[in-house]
Amino acid sequence: MSQCLDCHELDLDAILEQVRPLLGKGAVADYIPALAKVSGNKLGMAICDIHGNIYSAGDANEAFSIQSISKVLNLTLAFNIYGEALWEKVGREPSGQAFNSLIQLELEKGIPRNPFINAGAIKVCDLLTTRLSAPKQRLKELLWDLCGTKSISSNRIVAKSEREFSDRNAAMAHLMKSFNNFENDVQQVLKVYFHACAVEMSCIELAKAFSFLANQGKSAITQSQVVSSRQSKQLNALLATCGLYDQAGDFAYRVGLPGKSGVGGGIVAIVPGECSVCVWSPELNHFGNSLAGSEALSIFTSELGRSIF
Ligand code: GLN
């Protein structure tokens, strides 16, 4: 297996300085009021290579709301439980639509396009609720297992704020229910979903947690085999095609890696066989993806000379 021989030569501080002029040009997510309070000036980056070496810069130690990055983790749990049968309930095609769009859900009879748009992630939470007695606890245990620490938790204030402004996500769940593609109580499932979105982690913790996707399914930190090597390949394919919603093509063009964003301003990306990387800058572009974060990743892959394409 190749090593991330070049990671230690990268000047991460210099990458962050190159994108710092973008701060002030995006907007912090404010449709979840608790997230609107985060300072737009934050900027951090961390890499975890497949040997567990960590490289970091800026605000890489500060925990932030992981939001939709959590969709990968719940999907990992569901994929392990359901295997290929999962795809009868959720699609795996890029949506080309905003992450919270309802349009395709109506047109495609309640089957969400993929597990990374909100409808798909809520459906994954519905499936977890059917099979697990404590899905929120199970996610926490997965995170502890991936990071080798029990210090990670979900922010109750953010989760509550999401619940108070949940009309759109509730509409998706009810629409799926009207098409017979929803198994549990909508409010119960939304609690599982919001709990996951409100998990707080730092760039370093996220880079560590996602190392299994760079390392054929095995955590570079704890050595636990989280998914099979085949499933790791499949999850990376979903990240590459669907992880940045209707900006997935542009992200492939500029960054060229499997990636997953969240409206908290984090983006995790994977260099298969080498490392996982996380950037955080809370100001978003109009796709809901971190503006400076995606630019930092573009510089990162150009300097590293890596892409999956
Ligand atoms: N919690 C957010 C929501 O449900 C997650 C969206 C995101 O990060 N893209 O809208």
UniProtKB/TrEMBL annotation:
The keyword Acetylation applies. Its EC number is 3.5.1.2. The keyword Acetylation applies. GO terms for biological process: glutamate biosynthetic process; L-glutamine catabolic process. Gene3D superfamilies: DD-peptidase/beta-lactamase superfamily. It comes from the Bacteria. One of its GO terms (molecular function) is glutaminase activity. InterPro entries: Beta-lactam/transpept-like, Glutaminase. It holds the Pfam family Glutaminase. Substrate binds at S68, N118, E162, N169, Y193, Y245, V263. Keywords: Acetylation, Hydrolase. It catalyses: L-glutamine + H2O = L-glutamate + NH4(+). It is an enzyme of class 3 (hydrolase). Homotetramer. Belongs to the glutaminase family. This is Glutaminase.
